[in-house]
């Protein structure tokens, strides 16, 4: 049966198309450089927002009209799988992501929860045999249930640590079975509310112990997907331990975990941390740690994680610039960790939202590719740092300088002349490139 009767397969019709259920810029087969758009962008649907979210907010109940709402329990879980693969097919989506609790309800016991998961994973596995859609990553939800009130691996309660370990163990087994490309650790409630009741050192040590156990278990079962940490500065806790890329990187280095992880960078988490999306991508990239992306956007007027579908073309362009400079995302992808607004409650809105996100990233890809091809910013940056290619600058880079030689050099300096950074000129160039791609029909 069809859950989205009003929607046919969404295809590329080009920028002049007036069909709202068509791609205007995302043409999966179109080559950008030596890869197709589909290969570059590796889009993924987030199961939780698209098939589970109901639009509830702190002031009102759910509004979403979903064709699977007439079911409950395991029937609902099964209907969601059917609907999911219909949407994947209609949107031609290559990947999806889920938390354990998104796909199957928790049972009265952990054993029962496992059974529910096994039933649904069997069903997903069956669908995956004939579908092109693969699992980008899965994860364990270690934050919704009241048992995780004080966190999971950083809980003050060792029973909770054990329970969380069991959930991740099962998650890794599912990842292996479904051939997940990655496995994600987002910090859930791994953080604190007040230092007055918190042993921060023990909590961080325990988080590291937990992650080492996960690494060991993945090795034991032969799961070779990439482990990803998804930083976020706050929400739900006041201070999340994986605050941003730099903080999480220091943690991974301190505890000997760096070689086993990369980062899953979410745009709205970056902005919550007071950074831009591209800042977080850049920090991860220059450390060889850029793994995957949760593609969404926040609202600059709101201070929380609004998880909107990405439509800001500056942001998608600068993100794709980092991703291309990284040589792509490898096993990662662009996962729409994004939800339709509460007022966009019809099933078709799920399609409009994904089309908006996919077209916005397709534009970003094309613009970023041209910017790099023409070396627009590279040549400026190269010129800007030219002083390090010769003379005293070269000596600094080559390790031939010390405070003595630098002092001697400085004492002989007459005038120091700096050059303009030309920000405004560069922003105009960015606009020109954006307009060229968008206006070309
Ligand atoms: C929460 C968030 C999560 C992770 C997966 O802000 O982004 O959905 O992506 O647990
Ligand atoms: Co996310």
UniProtKB/TrEMBL annotation:
InterPro entries: Xyl_isomerase-like_sf, Xylose_isom_bac, Xylose_isomerase. It comes from the Bacteria. Homotetramer. The active site is at residues 99, 102. It is found in: Cytoplasm. Its cofactor is Mg(2+). Keywords: Carbohydrate metabolism, Cytoplasm, Isomerase, Magnesium, Metal-binding, Xylose metabolism. Mg(2+) 1 binds at residues 230, 266, 294, 337. Its EC number is 5.3.1.5. This is Xylose isomerase. Binds 2 magnesium ions per subunit. One of its GO terms (biological process) is D-xylose metabolic process. GO terms for molecular function: magnesium ion binding; xylose isomerase activity. Mg(2+) 2 binds at residues 266, 269, 305, 307. It comes from Anoxybacillus gonensis. GO terms for cellular component: cytoplasm. Belongs to the xylose isomerase family. The gene is xylA. Gene3D superfamilies: Divalent-metal-dependent TIM barrel enzymes. It catalyses: alpha-D-xylose = alpha-D-xylulofuranose.
């Amino acid at each position: 049966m069809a859950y989205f009767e009003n929607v046919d397969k969404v295809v590329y019709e080009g920028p002049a198309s007036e069909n709202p259920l068509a791609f205007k810029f995302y043409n999966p087969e179109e080559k950008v450089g030596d890869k197709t758009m589909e290969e570059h962008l590796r889009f993924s649907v987030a199961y939780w927002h698209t098939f589970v979210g109901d639009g509830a907010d702190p002031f009102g109940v759910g509004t979403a009209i979903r064709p699977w709402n007439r079911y409950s329990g395991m029937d609902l879980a099964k209907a969601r799988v059917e609907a999911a693969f219909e949407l994947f097919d209609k949107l031609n989506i290559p990947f999806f992501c889920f938390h354990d609790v998104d796909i199957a309800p928790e049972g009265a016991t952990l054993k029962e929860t496992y059974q529910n998961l096994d039933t649904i994973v069997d069903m997903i596995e069956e669908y995956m045999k004939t579908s092109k859609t693969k699992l980008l990553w899965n994860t364990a939800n270690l934050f919704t249930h009241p048992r995780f009130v004080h966190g999971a691996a950083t809980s003050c309660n060792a029973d909770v640590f054990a329970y969380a370990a069991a959930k991740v163990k099962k998650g890794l087994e599912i990842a292996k079975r479904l051939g997940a490309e990655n496995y994600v650790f987002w910090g859930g409630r791994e953080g604190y509310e007040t230092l007055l009741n918190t042993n921060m050192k023990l909590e961080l040590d325990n988080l590291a112990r937990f992650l080492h156990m996960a690494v060991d278990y993945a090795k034991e079962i032969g799961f070779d997907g990439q482990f990803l940490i998804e930083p976020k500065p706050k929400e739900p806790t006041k201070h999340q331990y994986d605050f941003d890329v730099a903080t999480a990187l220091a943690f991974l280095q301190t505890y000997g975990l760096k070689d086993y992880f990369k980062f899953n960078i979410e745009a709205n988490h970056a902005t919550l941390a007071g950074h831009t999306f591209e800042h977080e991508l850049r920090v991860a990239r220059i450390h060889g740690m850029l793994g995957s992306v949760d593609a969404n956007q926040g609202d600059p007027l709101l201070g929380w994680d609004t998880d909107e579908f990405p439509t800001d073309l500056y942001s998608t362009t600068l993100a794709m610039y980092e991703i291309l400079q990284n040589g792509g995302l490898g096993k990662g992808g662009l996962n729409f960790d994004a939800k339709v607004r509460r007022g966009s409650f019809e099933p078709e809105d799920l399609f409009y939202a994904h089309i908006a996100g996919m077209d916005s990233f397709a534009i970003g890809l094309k613009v970023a590719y041209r910017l790099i091809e023409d070396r627009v910013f590279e040549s400026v940056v190269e010129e800007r740092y030219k002083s390090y290619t010769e003379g005293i600058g070269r000596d600094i880079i080559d390790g031939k300088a010390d405070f003595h030689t630098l002092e001697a050099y400085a004492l002989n300096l007459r005038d120091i002349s700096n050059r303009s950074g030309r920000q405004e000129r560069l922003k105009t160039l960015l606009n020109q490139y954006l307009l060229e791609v968008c206006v070309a029909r």
